[in-house]
Design a protein that fits this description.
The chain has 128 residues and is mainly α. The chain has helices at 4-13, 23-34, 39-43, 45-56, 72-87, 94-101, 112-121.
């Protein structure tokens, strides 16, 4: 199973029966479910930006492209990671994927790859 941020991405991406296709609302509902008592965890921007960035660019199955993400960096990390996974040329670990998508080796990964890998492992990343 994915970590809790990855789990939230899975929940948010599969909420089609709830009637809303708004990924922002889906993310917030999923985070409330996964982190019911931690406001700080629910507000964490990096995983949110990664999930919404993937949605914005049409990478998440069942969610139409649109304008959802405020964070360009987290979006770019997630989109590049999804592109690398879709190339299918190799298997990637979380740390290898992070090193491949960031230009700053001192920059710490902050659950962005958990989002991408959880969606990938459940066949929820699609080609644009």
């Amino acid at each position: 199973m994915a970590n809790r941020y990855g789990e939230a991405a899975l929940i948010a991406s599969q909420q089609g029966s709830s009637g809303t296709v708004n990924p922002v609302a889906r993310w917030e509902a999923a985070m409330l479910q996964v982190y019911p008592t931690s406001i700080a965890a629910r507000k964490k921007g990096s995983p949110r930006g990664a999930f919404l960035g993937l949605c914005e660019e049409g990478f998440v199955k069942g969610i139409p492209p649109g304008h959802y993400a405020a964070s360009k960096d987290n979006k770019n990390y997630a989109v590049r990671a999804a592109e690398l996974l879709l190339e299918g040329s190799r298997k990637w670990s979380r740390s290898e994927l992070w090193q491949a998508v960031t230009e700053d080796p001192s920059k710490k990964e902050n659950h962005q790859m958990d989002i991408v890998l959880a969606l990938w492992k459940h066949d929820l990343i699609v080609k644009r």
